[in-house]
Amino acid sequence: MQRILARETKNNIGKTITIQGWLHKKRLLGGLTFINVRDRSGLTQVVIDNKDEVEKLRGLQIGTIVSITGNVVEEKRAPGGAELHDATIEVNVPVTDEPPIEIDKPLSHKPDNLDTLFDNRVIGLRNLSEQGVFRIRSQILRNIRSFLYDQDFVEIQSPKIVAGNAEGGSEVFKLDYFGKEASLAQSPQLYKQMMVGVFERVFEIGPAFRAELSATTRHVSEVTMLDIEMGFIENHEQLLDFIQDMVYDTANKIYDEHKDILNKFNAPELKLVKKFPRYSVKEIHEMYSKATGENTHNDKDLSPAEERWICDYAKKHDGCEAVFATNLPIEAHKFYQMINQEDSGTVLSADLLFRGIELATCPMRENDYKKLTKQMEQKGIDPNAAGFESYLKAFKYGLPIHGGCGFGIDRFVEKLVGLDNVKEAILFPRDINRLVP
Amino acid sequence: MQRILARETKNNIGKTITIQGWLHKKRLLGGLTFINVRDRSGLTQVVIDNKDEVEKLRGLQIGTIVSITGNVVEEKRAPGGAELHDATIEVNVPVTDEPPIEIDKPLSHKPDNLDTLFDNRVIGLRNLSEQGVFRIRSQILRNIRSFLYDQDFVEIQSPKIVAGNAEGGSEVFKLDYFGKEASLAQSPQLYKQMMVGVFERVFEIGPAFRAELSATTRHVSEVTMLDIEMGFIENHEQLLDFIQDMVYDTANKIYDEHKDILNKFNAPELKLVKKFPRYSVKEIHEMYSKATGENTHNDKDLSPAEERWICDYAKKHDGCEAVFATNLPIEAHKFYQMINQEDSGTVLSADLLFRGIELATCPMRENDYKKLTKQMEQKGIDPNAAGFESYLKAFKYGLPIHGGCGFGIDRFVEKLVGLDNVKEAILFPRDINRLVP
Predict the structure, then answer these.
(1) How big is the CA angle at B103 (ends B102 and B105), to the nearest 5 degrees?
(2) Given A66, A93, A120, which residue is the final one in a domain?
(3) Residue A122 falls within a domain, yes or no?
(4) Residues 6 or more apart from B279 whose CB is under 8 A from it?
(5) Which residue of B has its CA nearest to A171?
(6) Which residues of A touch B199 (CB under 8 A)?
(7) What residues pair up with A363 in beta bridges, in sequence order?
(8) Do A427 and B221 touch (CB under 8 A)?
(9) Residue A350 near residue A281, CB atoms below 8 Å
(10) How many domains is chain A built from?
(11) pTM exceeds 0.95
(12) Which of A173, A182, A437 sits opposite B435 (nearest CB)?
């Protein structure tokens, strides 16, 4: 008999159907046995009164895989509005050990015990709420790609094993590549810029590697990055508008379609306005100093406390949980960013902050070959190093004004769902203490 | 003035518009200067008779970035069916050096000189045909994901830095992970199987790493793999049908939509039938031995010559360029594959061959916890090793019958376009000799 999914049971009232899935819950009530069976579409409730059938489940635990044939009866209190009666059970895969964690609770882990979460990820995700995070994640990626394809973007895959350490920075994983020193790519930065010269608009969603020495709620050593780069944009505002529209569109779709999951995680109501507020770093220092009494006027980048503060401020003042911190200080930034001629000491770059955390950095790039090589030298980087040959060729032979962003998918998932640690948004996170599972 | 793309010029006949892009070609004809300007949508032809305007381009090379304002005139012989007259030129980014390779030829490289291709990738891809390969690649990924989303698949990202060397095999890149030994993932195999227990159907498209010591037309050290895994399938035939449908659907869409690019590469006509022919490895050995006089009856896996031969045979005999080689010999296969009870010495696995090369391996997995651990031990693998703890948990607590495939995206692009080397289908390929660009 053809398998019917849980979501289809209510369309089969009065018929005899077969469902197949995992035994998810079992309880006795007034001499009847109620079981829930989980499949990829949800739960089906089955009521069993035949003792021979109940006997088939003796000694079997949650996780046992069963095929159940029964009659579909309308039942408003059952998941999906219908349940199976007069059931015949076939055990496909018996499970005799009790699972290490409970999966039929609202969540399978305590929010403050992440080691339990990660050590038991493979079982814990059988909990319908927990797995919802990754259904949302998959949907976010689909929405973002769809948004970008519709705007003429070409998807690329750049190499993850790269020569030397082209971008600078110390947090690099090194490896031996057939006797040569190589490293794991920290971002597709140089490759996506090169491809602006070919396709104008490119994006990549893939892993990026950072040997983060600190174990915080925001850092992991393997992240999933969305890298976007687009040429022939008129100015920095246009770039920020584009990224804002992508976030607005994607986040709203998730909140429209996944209310059930978001409610389980107590995700706050989503507040976004079409035009995200924009404040310069200098303005934020001033506002924060005035509001808190701490003096941050002489700081360069924003501190994590200031990032949280400006997000709270924008939510209250502008009705928007996303905010751009613009006119970033030149010191903290890479050689390829474009210097802001209208605000000395800053680059044409902005951080996109959302719910207290930085999601993306969104700079314009220096596209003039001579200025770029000069900026490299000023940062102590040798433009003649082998790793830069192709990169600089792209500029020498004509690259238009361009900009883009490196956008943290894991952080976006974390904050959209309302989680407190980026690792919760990653299937199998990696940090200084964790290399398994 | 708002920029108009090349593909939109023909909708603006009689109007004054501004285009922006790369100087792609320049020639003199009867006292007039003809230039082609490239943007992300194609070429626009511009006719210049004003000497002051021609003068602006003196000494400037292909690649120079220009904004051109002119009147759109219908011209059937021009790309897009229209051209610009009475043009005013603004040079945005001057290029004064002649590009290292020509980009306005049918192809920017000779098919037998791949080093020229890769060393100049960043400029060579400005050739419209060459870049077509990667437009097709982007479209293939989009089509495949769309096919899978429509069938309830959840997209996952598994870690690329993994403990030890769980899958076995010697071709592993090792790295130091904060003092622990780690390796780069050769595939998401174990992770996708674990996720069958959560989502039933998962896929991942991402990099996989293999320290291939040989430099051939089929091997690279960093590949893009499509990994699919699906639970609750009835039998191996159903799995093969699914993969066949995905390939049929995706390949036909590419041939319908990208005839222009495929013609430039002399891609052969696509011949696929809805039901791909299926021959067991034993049958292929017999047929090949009979046809060629070589005796391969005692061989285990198919040789590359046999793979090419059976593809030719299936094309002629079955009218199909894709063919499954089924009943693969047990010796060459991994511990997690399901043994074929009906054909001793074989596993329930098949290779998908297309145009002479293996695209994918499509096995059923052993989903019985006890049989699986026994198969591990038979292969000399310790089930108690740390890398297997979570993997085996997924089986111990209930995993349904499942199967999937590891599908080489690079090879699929290569063969669909009609290329001869998998590296041509990769933006920046990596092999034993190549780590840049």
Answers:
(1) 85
(2) A93
(3) no
(4) B287, B310, B314, B323, B324, B325, B326
(5) B178
(6) 40, 131, 134-135
(7) A349
(8) no
(9) no
(10) 2
(11) yes
(12) A182
Q: What is the pLDDT of residues A340-381, one digit of tens each?
A: 999 999 999 999 999 999 999 999 999 999 999 999 999 999
Contact residues, chain B, for A435 at CB < 8 Å: 161-163, 177, 180, 182
What pLDDT score was predicted for residue B169?
67
B150 and B46 within one domain: no
A305 in a structural domain = yes
Minimum-distance CB partner of A64 among B99, B197, B398: B398
What's the rounded Cα separation, in Å, for the pair A242 and A247?
Answer: 9
Alpha-carbon gap, residue A244 to A112, rounded angstroms: 33
Dihedral (Cα; A282, A283, A284, A288), 10-degree rounding:
110
CATH number at residue A87: 2.40.50.140
- Most confident range (mean pLDDT) of A106-120, B205-219, B274-288 is B274-288
Chain segment B253-301, per-residue pLDDT in tens: 999 999 999 998 889 999 999 999 999 999 999 999 999 999 999 999 9
CB contact (8 A) between residue A198 and residue B126: yes
| Shared domain check, B350 and B286 | yes
Residue in A with minimal Cα distance to B392: A122
Q: What does the alpha-carbon distance between residue A94 and residue A110 come to, in Å, rounded to a whole number?
A: 28
What's the domain range around B411? 128-425
pLDDT tens digit sequence for A299-328 = 999 999 999 999 999 999 999 999 999 999
**Matching residue, tokens 């047990």:** B330
Band of the pLDDT at B104, cuts 50, 70, 90? confident
